[in-house]
Design a protein that fits this description.
261 residues; 20% strand; binds S-adenosylmethionine
Length: 261
């Protein structure tokens, strides 16, 4: 199986199936089912507070998936989200669930002018991208000077992982900090994902019910089986603390910070 096929199974096909399962179960299942990298509302709340998101903030969500985190920010803080996501199935699912502006776009080449947003976040995406500096540079470019860039990054806590899921390239914490510095993003605040509050039970239960419907409909499909295997591999790495989730808020430089080379 190629890396592209693995990514498509997990982030394109399953995304669309997820929206269909929500249609069966009801709108109250949409948010939990559509947060596919971040999970916990507490993680989103930590980022929102640290990034100072508020009423009317123009927020770019790069690698937005099915759109749960952007919707959470819109409902809880009044931000105006724009979703960018390379997988068409995920974009269609996000539109179907939440009706926010969505663009099919690779985060390495965002179709927005410089400084188009007050802030941007990217959750659970960086580990799927090989050229992390190019990806981070696009976040920096599209956010106003002094604006916030929030990240949830799954980092590699050991030199070599026993099992590397297809399409994932987990950076070490040191590599991540070096990449941020290299593109001029200033690290402002950081916490371990494990240190923010756990996901509420009713949120987990709603997400599980959606997964059960997807499994009921598609478990004989090899795309579901491959995506399931990928998710189990990642869950195992996180459970064994070989991969560790980190939440970070960075700031883009203001012109007086920029030193001519
Ligand atoms: C683990 S999911 C997280 C989705 C969403 N951010 C969330 O928290 O629910 C990773 C997402 O990154 C997207 N992705 C992969 N490569 C990307 C790239 N080069 N640019 C932007 N997004 C990318 C995938 O399509 C997928 O939707």
């Amino acid at each position: 199986m190629s890396e592209a096929e693995a990514m498509a199974d997990e982030f394109d096909t399953i995304a669309w199936w997820t929206a269909s399962a929500v249609a069966e179960l009801g709108e109250d299942h949409a948010l939990p089912a559509a947060c596919r990298g971040s999970g916990s509302p507490a993680a989103l709340a930590w980022l929102a507070s640290s990034m100072e998101l508020g009423q009317g903030t123009r927020l770019l969500d790069s690698g937005a998936g099915v759109g749960g985190p952007a919707e959470y920010a819109a409902r809880s803080y009044g931000v105006r989200p724009v979703l960018a996501e390379p997988m068409e199935g995920a974009c269609r699912a996000a539109r179907r669930l939440f009706r926010r502006p969505v663009v099919v776009s690779d985060g390495l080449r965002l179709p927005f002018p410089d400084a188009a947003f007050d802030a941007a976040w990217s959750l659970g995406v960086l580990c799927t991208v090989e050229d992390k500096r190019a990806y981070l540079s696009e976040l920096r470019r599209t956010v106003v000077p002094g604006g916030a860039v929030g990240l949830l990054v799954y980092t590699r806590a050991v030199d070599d992982l026993p099992d590397q899921p297809e399409g994932n390239h987990f950076p070490s914490h040191d590599e991540l900090v070096a990449d941020l510095a290299a593109v001029g993003l200033e690290l402002d605040d950081e916490t371990a994902l494990a240190d923010v509050a756990a996901t509420p039970e009713d949120w987990d239960e709603a997400a599980s019910r959606v997964e059960e419907v997807v499994a009921r409909e598609h478990r004989d499909d090899e795309r579901w089986q491959r995506a399931q295997a990928q998710q189990e591999t990642i869950a195992g790495l996180i459970g064994d603390e070989l991969v560790v989730g980190v939440l970070l808020t960075c700031r883009t430089p203001v012109p007086s910070d920029i030193v001519e080379q």
